[in-house]
């Protein structure tokens, strides 16, 4: 597809697009064996939660990226940044020049198991599609997203979804409630490949816990609104690996249960920890108690599900 800017006067007029994108958590993360391509087969249930990054894309005749907010100083601004790769991938797909000036305002912790980098990538695809007037469908954007990272298609979609393959094949699932989370952000990140390598090592040693198995009980728990029912079936195969690499996470998880969380689990590959609350008020009191325990760098509250990357202005 090749559309000249001149064919899209609406986008000429505004010259900039803002996209808001959520963080993701995994309510169920079942990790299969290591595949020949270096990935693992997954059966995961994603949920988008109300911690957001914002991507502001401006018309430009070059490609430039600036970032402010949470962890901004530690992030690359070149091709190592997934947002830059998103611009180039969309340009290659549409035949347009890879031109945009991007500014990302980060709230999602970096390397925290919340897919912050993937979120910025999904937001950039949606932003440049609007800015350039290429009008791709969500499915087309998700197809490009899958070439850039395993959880990026989910962040284009949002809501609650089952992820299969290496996580890139996503299908929405029914979620009959809103769930309230306390998000315990650790100091420092964990490398996702290192956490996957650690689960392989623990499995080889025979010391990994039983695998999470089928996501069906979790999917059933999502069809009703009681958080206690959901709490009983949350599962993450990467938790043992994250705790093995960062033993103090065990203290954080126990602190949340001591303070009255319905459940505590590591988010994705960690080190962020998630605590399920009964409702919004309980999430606020739980967050305050956890902050007082000093086991996290920052404590936030969030609810889910929320929508995926969306143009806001
Ligand atoms: O797909 P993405 O680039 O986000 O994955 C980052 C890394 O996480 C991969 O290089 C791989 O080491 C690991 N991974 C995996 N199996 C998956 C998804 C990710 O082993 N299904």
Automatic annotation (TrEMBL):
Pathway: Isoprenoid biosynthesis; isopentenyl diphosphate biosynthesis via DXP pathway; isopentenyl diphosphate from 1-deoxy-D-xylulose 5-phosphate: step 3/6. Pfam families: GHMP_kinases_C, GHMP_kinases_N. InterPro entries: GHMP_kinase_C_dom, GHMP_kinase_C_sf, GHMP_kinase_N_dom, IspE, Ribosomal_Su5_D2-typ_SF, Ribsml_uS5_D2-typ_fold_subgr. Signal peptide: none annotated. The active site is at 24, 151. Residues 219-291 form the GHMP kinase C-terminal domain. Its EC number is 2.7.1.148. Residues 81-159 form the GHMP kinase N-terminal domain. It catalyses: 4-CDP-2-C-methyl-D-erythritol + ATP = 4-CDP-2-C-methyl-D-erythritol 2-phosphate + ADP + H(+). The keyword ATP-binding applies. It is an enzyme of class 2 (transferase). The keyword Kinase applies. HAMAP family: IspE. Catalyzes the phosphorylation of the position 2 hydroxy group of 4-diphosphocytidyl-2C-methyl-D-erythritol. This is 4-diphosphocytidyl-2-C-methyl-D-erythritol kinase. It comes from Longispora fulva. The lineage of its organism: Bacteria, Bacillati, Actinomycetota, Actinomycetes, Micromonosporales.
């Amino acid at each position: 597809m090749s559309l000249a800017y001149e064919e899209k006067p609406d986008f000429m007029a505004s010259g900039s697009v803002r996209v808001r994108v959520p963080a993701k958590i995994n309510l169920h993360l079942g990790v299969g064996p290591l595949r020949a391509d270096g990935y693992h087969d997954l059966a995961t249930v994603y949920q988008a939660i109300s911690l957001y990054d914002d991507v502001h894309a401006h018309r430009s005749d070059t490609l430039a990226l600036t970032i402010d907010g949470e962890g901004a100083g530690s992030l690359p601004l070149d091709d190592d940044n997934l947002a830059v790769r998103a611009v180039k991938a969309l340009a290659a797909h549409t035949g347009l020049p890879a031109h945009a000036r991007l500014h990302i305002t980060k709230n999602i912790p970096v390397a925290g198991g919340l897919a912050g980098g993937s979120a910025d990538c999904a937001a950039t695809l949606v932003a440049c599609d609007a800015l350039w007037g290429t009008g791709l469908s969500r499915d087309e954007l998700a197809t490009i997203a899958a070439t850039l990272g395993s959880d990026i298609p989910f962040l284009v979609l949002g809501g609650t979804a089952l992820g299969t393959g290496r996580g890139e094949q996503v299908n929405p699932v029914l979620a009959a409630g809103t769930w309230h989370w306390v998000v315990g952000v650790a100091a420092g990140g964990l490398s996702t490949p290192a956490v996957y390598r650690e689960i392989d090592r623990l499995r080889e040693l025979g010391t990994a816990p039983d695998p999470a198995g089928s996501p069906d009980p979790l999917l059933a728990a999502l069809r009703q609104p009681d958080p206690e029912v959901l709490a009983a079936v949350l599962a993450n195969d990467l938790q043992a690996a994250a705790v093995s690499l960062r033993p103090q996470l065990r203290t954080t998880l126990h602190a949340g249960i001591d303070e009255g969380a319905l459940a505590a689990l590591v988010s994705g590959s960690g080190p962020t920890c998630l605590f399920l609350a009964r409702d919004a008020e309980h999430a606020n009191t739980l967050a305050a108690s956890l902050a007082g325990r000093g086991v996290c760098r920052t404590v936030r509250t969030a609810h889910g599900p929320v929508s995926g990357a969306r143009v806001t202005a």
